[in-house]
Amino acid sequence: MQILVRVFEVLFISSLVGVFPLSLAETTSPGVCSEADRAALLAFKAKIVKDTTGILSSWIGRDCCGGDWEGVQCNPAGRVTTLALQGPVKDSSMYMKGTLSSSLGSLPFLQVLVISGMKLITGPIPDSFSKLTGLTQLVLEDNSLQGNIPSGLGLLSHLQTLSLAGNHLKGPIPPSLGNLRNLGMINLGRNSLSGPIPASLKNLHLLQSFDLSFNSLSGFIPEFLGQFRNITFIDLSNNQLSAHLPISMFNLVSLSYLSLSHNLLTGTIPEQVGNLKSLTSLSLSSNKFIGHIPASISRLQNLWSLNLSRNGFSDPLPDVSNRGIPSLLSIDLSFNNLSLGTVPKWITERQLSDVNLAGCKLRGSLPRFTRPDSLNSIDLSNNFLTGSISTFFTKMTSLQKVKLSNNLLKFDLSELKVPDGISSIDLHSNQVCGSLSSILNNRTSSFLEVIDVSNNLISGTIPEFSEGLNLKELNIGSNKIAGQIPSSISNLIELERLDVSRNLITGTIPMSLGRLANLHWLDLSINRLTGRIPTSLLGIKFMRHASFRANRLCGEIPQGRPYDIFPASAYAHNLCLCGKPMPPCRGKK
């Protein structure tokens, strides 16, 4: 869903870029750089103490308008009109470290200011930015900016795009932002803003995209949202908003994306939800909604993603005909007060990609889907499903994730025939028996990243691990597995989480375990392991949790972080472990 949100925002900004050209230099040769503008840019550069992007290394020479200064564009008079510095958000090695210089407020012809994805630019947004009255785009997202949003930004009357997302900004949303009557897009998401949504924002009649997600905003969703006739995108998720949904919101016939998930919203979904004829994605998950899911939802012809999980919705589900919600691809009704019994036909007979019906009191055998080849992920966990699994995955050629945990399924692992492209299998807390070698062998797909078969009846030993596996999580805890941990465990070079607790495992902890450099969770507790905890584990730098409790281990605990600062309970109930955090070893002070 986060990918979808990002696509909406990128498309919106791109549309504005098309209307308001970023560079006059593309059509007209710029003049020689103004000395005052050059000085303002160099003052900004001076405040950046480290630049691994290499962008600012191009800022040399007298002429900042000649095209050599990366990210800088000018008008024919030699005045800077655009400063666009964008770093790759996902590449942690590419960043700028420093603060924003108030000198940027001395660029009177600036129309576009984009400093995004720089990660380590800290400090406040300078008050001097309020002097940039010609600005149409201000994008300062994905940095580490702090403090309050300056109220002076409300003076930028030509502003059409305002994005301050992905920083550490706090305090209230300034009411002065309601003066930005030309604003088409506002994104203040992923900060620590608090207080209510200001009533002054009702003046933003041209708004098309409204994102305040991932903050600590409180109060209610304002009625004036229903006045934004051009709006296509609303994301108020992950806040502390309460009360009922405003009826006016369901007049927004152009609205395409609506996410109000992870709030404290109450009441019911009104029948008027069927008026949102342009809606493609609706997420109301993790709130306190009650009542029935309205039948009018079947009128949403363009809806392809519906997430109503983790609320208090009750039976019956609406009777959706074959023509209802014709575009639906993804549905999540998990963890409500639904007692479905069986999966409705309007779900099993559709060409869906994602089906999530966890905790819906499903009973009987696993459902059969008419179009299994379209399924990408399935979550039927926390139900009362019984029987075998032998034919369930037949023709599910696109399946990547399956979660059937916390059911009453009873089968041997040798019956499990999963698609080649599957990346995650979660079968924990069932009645699964058999040997791990049925799913972990030289035929195991390199796409497989997660296996959780904990709390079952699996026996046998841990098989040898061949090279080329890309497992990131292996949880086989709470079974009846015996034998030793094979030294070939070191072939799982991508492993981040390993849990073999509550089994019958014997032998020593292999030295090769220390080669798993990505491991951050290790649980070997409640087994029959002997010998020492190998010092090779000190080579795992990112370990956050480890437990060796209730084995037959002896000797000195590796004396280095984090092992010597884990709680003593992580080493309790062994034969003779010593050294921090346990009592000192004999002969050592």
Automatic annotation (TrEMBL):
Residues 1-25 form the signal peptide. InterPro entries: Leu-rich_rpt, Leu-rich_rpt_typical-subtyp, LRR_dom_sf, LRR_N_plant-typ, StomDev_PlantInt_Reg. Pfam families: LRR_1, LRR_8, LRRNT_2. It is found in: Cell membrane. It comes from the Eukaryota. Residues 35-75 form the Leucine-rich repeat-containing N-terminal plant-type domain. This is Leucine-rich repeat-containing N-terminal plant-type domain-containing protein. It comes from Gossypium schwendimanii. Keywords: Cell membrane, Leucine-rich repeat, Membrane, Repeat, Signal, Transmembrane, Transmembrane helix. GO terms for cellular component: plasma membrane. Its main location: membrane.
